[in-house]
Amino acid sequence: MDSGQLDRPVKSGDLIAELAARAPRVGANTGAWPGLTIYRFTTPVGPTWEEIQSLSLCIVAQGRKAVTVDGETYRYDPFNYLVLSSHLHFEAEILEASPSLPFLSFVLQIDPALVRRVSSDMLERRTTTFRSRGGPGQPPAKQGLVSALDQELMGAVLRFLRAVGTGTDRRVLAPLYLQEMVYRVLQREQFARLLAIAAAQAASNPVSAVLDYVRAHLPEPLTVADMAEQVSLSPSAFAHLFRDVTGKAPYQFLKEMRLDRARELLVDGNLAVARVSKEVGYASVSHFISEFRGRFGVTPRLYGDMHAVHVELDSQRVREGGGQS
Fold it and tell me: Which domains does the chain have, with CATH numbers?
């Protein structure tokens, strides 16, 4: 493995190249790792039934795909990945593919024992502070989760794919990168769940109370001292508690909240980049653009434009399908 690969920013073209090299045939190609399947399609493909046994990570490098589970459809593309829970029978459809721009993706089924081990490590310190468990006030678990593909997960994916190609790296490094991938996915899932239950736990959990406050004040300049003041703690005590519960420093968590909200505003498509920057609390547009690109791999303008193209393609496809009888 070239050590220089670890120093430069990850680009979507890197993943396209890795999967194209490993998927010479149209259809499913067996990966060099248990549970890894790499797909190539040169035309859209109608719904087909598929099945998985373990929690699965589904990432598209080029093209778009839809998965329908229990009547709910999850669409994902190079900007968003899909996580599916175990023991599912579902419909999959390739929405966008052509000979010049083939659909390229992979599905990795992950050993449940690894998922349990990583999630236990993540939860161990959090539950010593707040031993909250699922209850009637929490939203029901879904079979799938679509989330933004950021640079952290993309980097782990590329390191894993490159490591499985050589004997020594496959034995020593690939298991470590696989564990990092699982951690990144569970971290994202926990992040989303934590936001969803923040309001319900605000009275008893000071960290959740702060998250509720931050979500309502994202456009404003916020410091760790501001957040600590909301729950009557010193900045150092609050920062320690916050890291115990979320696994991240308060400022890092705040930055991710800002950028995730920015992504939502860009997807809506009604605001200019400068306005989005202001709405999520960035005083400098150039700083916002730099941090957005660092997290999602593209500039905010390009992200919004690409999403608009995808929406138009979906609308065109619906119109064309509706006109057939």
Answer: 1-130+139-190 (2.60.120.810), 202-325 (1.10.10.60)
CA 92 to centroid of chain Cα atoms: 19
Dist. CA 172–CA 235, nearest whole Å: 41
Strand order in the sheet with 36-41: 27-30, 36-41, 103-109, 56-62, 80-84, 144-148
- As a whole number of angstroms, the distance between CA 131 and CA 167 comes to 43
Question: In angstroms, how far is the first alpha carbon of the chain from the final one?
Answer: 54
Q: Is the distance from CB of 303 to CB of 295 less than 8 angstroms?
A: no
Q: What does the alpha-carbon distance between residue 181 and residue 81 come to, in Å, rounded to a whole number?
A: 12
Q: Which residues of the chain have pLDDT under 50?
A: 1-7, 124-139, 194-203, 323-325
Q: How many angstroms separate the CA atoms of 18 and 11, rounded? A: 12
- Which SS3 state, helix, strand or coil, does residue 42 take? coil
pLDDT tens, position by position, 197-209:
333 334 456 787 7
User: Could you give the residue ranges of the DSSP H alpha helices within the chain?
Assistant: 12-22, 112-129, 151-163, 167-172, 174-201, 206-216, 224-230, 235-246, 250-268, 273-279, 285-296, 300-322
Calpha distance 172→175 (Å, rounded): 7
pLDDT for the residue numbered 100:
95
